[in-house]
């Protein structure tokens, strides 16, 4: 009898762990707002909706190299995977959407939102993805190329100091440098872990070597994600989001050569804007890819599972 119950439990768990299709609708965003004076051009956007209550909370974004495959993580501990379609070079639709729980090292889904609070994902290549969790701070690798969305969490050794920030304000951005002066190093950036001057802490590391640094905090913006350009410079996404202000978004660039151990970098402002003037919500995830000879930058918003917020997927071309 115990064996039968164990087999039944295993079957139920296996079904729950597999990716499940999710019905979504995507309405086109025909206009983002003025990009005059920036290095960006609008390449289309979508408002994504679903009646499935498990969809939402998208906090980290990764794209395939050709911009057609999307993989996002939810702060409720779920994967969201889909395919992107284009018309006349612009983002036009999303299809083949599916959701799956993010499994731990034992192959189990998160027991609580705190355990599943995924905030960042980065495509490392060869089907491997780096994911940062915030509330119970940890960073790990998922080999999706081998196991699909049933991949298990593999702990990536990272500096212990990353977990020293305030609750719900720790790791928000992760990645790995593939070129430039920090080639091979991993990257993590916090949200509200500030140094004595009020600047945002970040870390590079490789094996036992750790390079702590800080990013100058500007106005009321907080860093919510980062993407690393092929040459090694870092694009950071920042958001301003609260009850007293309209939602804001800023995009800045950090030169890799400006990052020094113990130093503070002041990133170059590429764009800043707020809702009403721009199609902006609670912007949380950023990713880079290449399409039609252009560097494309995609940004996704976290709707916080709130009916008054939206899941936006925006795409721009960027001239580095």
Feature tags:
single chain, 320 residues, mainly beta, Neuraminidase, 5-stranded antiparallel sheet, 49% strand, globular
Can you summarize this structure?
The chain has 320 residues and is mostly beta strands. The chain has helices spanning 2-17, 144-147; strands spanning 20-21, 25-29, 40-49, 58-63, 69-74, 78-87, 90-101, 118-125, 128-133, 138-143, 154-155, 171-176, 186-194, 200-206, 209-215, 222-228, 234-240, 248-254, 264-265, 268-274, 283-291, 294-301, 311-318.
Descriptive overview:
This protein has one domain (2-318): Neuraminidase, CATH 2.120.10. Strands 1-7-6-5-4 form a five-stranded antiparallel sheet, with no helix packed on it. Strands 2-3-23-22-21 form a five-stranded antiparallel sheet, with no helix packed on it. Strands 12-13-14-15-19 form a five-stranded mixed sheet, with no helix packed on it. The protein is built from two helices and 23 strands. The termini are far apart. It is globular. It has helices at 2-17, 144-147; strands spanning 20-21, 25-29, 40-49, 58-63, 69-74, 78-87, 90-101, 118-125, 128-133, 138-143, 154-155, 171-176, 186-194, 200-206, 209-215, 222-228, 234-240, 248-254, 264-265, 268-274, 283-291, 294-301, 311-318. The model is unreliable at 1-16 (pLDDT under 50). It is mainly beta and 320 residues long.
